[in-house]
């Protein structure tokens, strides 16, 4: 219940920040023809997640993102994802799963004179939040002298918060298709 | 090389890193005891000429941990299934029972190496005072990652 309230508050703050940025962008004086771009929002999906499934089937997840250039080279970003991991190790098992969300801003540092070119190299930051649960079971502590110790299953639900500094590159490999 | 060719290549190359951690053969949590003597208020290291030591294990046969001709101390594993560990100790011709009272909890050493035992030494006692005249607890936390300079208790002979 408390987590729900915290999530509502946080999503409220994020909405207000994004709204404020949008208002600032619209109210800013236009000094040149290319100051406020009119390109639409970009929607993305994290392809690396699918590579993880091939490399490590115990980890499953998906992530989508959206950003839009509200001012020259400034992109508010919102990312939403789900991740779960299930490991069966020799001495313990571990499972964790949860949704996560990140919100932040990217700034494009790639100097492109031709504004019809949409490649970007960006730096930015994110605030992240995730309600998740995890469970540790079948923990065995090997003790050859006194006898092995087997611990009770431990599970817990938590909410994690974090901040990220982000560097990214995007290139338009096909019209309106970025990698 | 064109930017639209270079950037995807760099992105794929930077997708992820793999780390491999090497684990120890054993993560037994062992208490380190050092023999000491005290004369005129001065504490000094002590070496015994004969040490025999084994754990008193309920329902299990005795199994020697030490049978040494000379020892300045000993390292013993603690019992994770009980709140105490009992040891029969013989120094030269004197015999005694050393009881270590402890709490036990688990901690994660690493994802690759699993969990280890963390003991908190609460107290220790000896049955008689003929052999071990005094004791001192230096470090109450006994974890599974042994360091060469660790000393947990001093036993004064």
Quick structural overview:
Chain A is of the alpha+beta class and about 180 residues long. Chain A has helices at about 1-25, 50-55, and strands at about 40-45, 60-65, 75-90, 95-110, 120-135, 140, 150, 155-170, 170-175, 175-179. A 6-stranded antiparallel β-sheet of chain A has the order 1-2-3-4-5-8. In chain A, strands 6-7 form a two-stranded antiparallel sheet.
How many separate domains make up the residues of chain A? Answer: 1
Largest beta-sheet characterization of chain A: 6 strands, antiparallel
Multimeric state of these chains?
Answer: heterodimer
Shape of chain A: elongated
Measured between the Cα atoms of the first and last residue of chain A, the distance is 39 Å
Query: How many DSSP H or I helices of chain B?
Result: 1
Class from helix and strand fractions of chain B: mainly beta
How many runs of DSSP E, i.e. beta strands of chain A? 10
* Beta-strand residue percentage of chain B: over 45%
Mean pLDDT of chain A: 80
Biggest β-sheet strands, sense, barrel of chain B: 6 strands, antiparallel
The largest beta-sheet of chain B arranges its strands as: 4-3-6-7-8-10
How would you portray this structure in words?
The complex is a heterodimer of chains A (179) and B (157). Chain A has 2 helices and 10 strands. Chain A is elongated, with a radius of gyration of 22 Å. In chain A, a hairpin with a 7-residue loop joins β6 (140-141) and β7 (149-150). Residues 1-11 and 20-37 of chain A have low confidence and may be disordered. Chain A has helices spanning 2-27, 48-55; strands at 42-45, 59-67, 74-88, 93-108, 120-137, 140-141, 149-150, 154-170, 172-174, 177-178. Chain A has one domain. In chain A, 11% of the residues are buried. Chain B has one domain (29-156). In chain B, 7% of the residues lie in helices and 49% in strands. The longest helix of chain B is centred in the N-terminal third of the chain and has 11 residues, at 3-13. Classes of the chains: A alpha+beta (179), B mainly beta (157). The A-B interface holds A 48, 51-52, 55, 87, 89-92, 94, 119, 139, 141-147, 149, 151, 169-173, 179 and B 3-4, 7-8, 10-11, 15-16, 26-28, 55, 57, 60, 63, 65, 77-82, 85, 104, 106, 111, 114-117.
């Amino acid at each position: 219940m408390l987590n729900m309230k915290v999530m509502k508050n946080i999503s409220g703050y994020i909405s207000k920040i994004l709204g404020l940025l949008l208002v600032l962008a619209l109210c800013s004086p236009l000094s040149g023809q290319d100051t406020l771009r009119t390109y639409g929002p970009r929607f993305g999906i994290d392809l690396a997640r699918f590579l993880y499934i091939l490399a490590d089937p115990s980890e499953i997840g998906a992530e989508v993102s959206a950003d839009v250039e509200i001012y020259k080279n400034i992109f508010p970003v919102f990312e939403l994802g789900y991740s779960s991991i299930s490991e069966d190790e020799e001495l313990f098992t571990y499972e964790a799963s949860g949704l996560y969300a990140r919100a932040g801003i990217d700034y494009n540092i790639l100097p492109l004179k031709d504004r019809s070119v949409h490649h970007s190299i960006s730096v930015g930051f994110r605030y992240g939040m995730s309600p998740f649960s995890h469970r540790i079971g079948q923990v065995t502590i090997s003790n050859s002298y006194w006898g092995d110790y087997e611990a009770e299953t431990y599970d817990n639900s938590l909410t994690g918060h974090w901040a990220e500094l982000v560097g990214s590159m995007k290139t338009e490999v096909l019209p309106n298709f970025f990698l | 090389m064109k930017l639209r060719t270079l950037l995807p290549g760099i992105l794929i190359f930077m997708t992820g890193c793999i780390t491999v951690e090497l684990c120890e053969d054993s993560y037994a949590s062992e208490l380190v005891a050092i023999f000491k003597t005290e004369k005129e208020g001065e504490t000094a290291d002590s070496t015994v000429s004969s040490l025999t030591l084994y754990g008193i294990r309920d329902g299990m046969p005795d199994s020697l941990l030490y049978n040494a001709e000379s020892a300045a101390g000993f390292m013993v594993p603690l019992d994770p299934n009980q709140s105490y560990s009992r040891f029969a100790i013989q120094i030269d011709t004197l015999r005694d029972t050393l009881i270590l009272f402890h709490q036990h909890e688990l901690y994660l050493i690493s994802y690759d190496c699993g969990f280890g035992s963390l003991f908190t030494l609460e107290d220790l006692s000896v049955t008689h005072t003929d052999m071990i005249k005094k004791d001192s607890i230096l470090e109450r936390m006994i974890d599974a990652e042994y360091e060469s300079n660790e000393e947990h208790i001093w036993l004064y002979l």
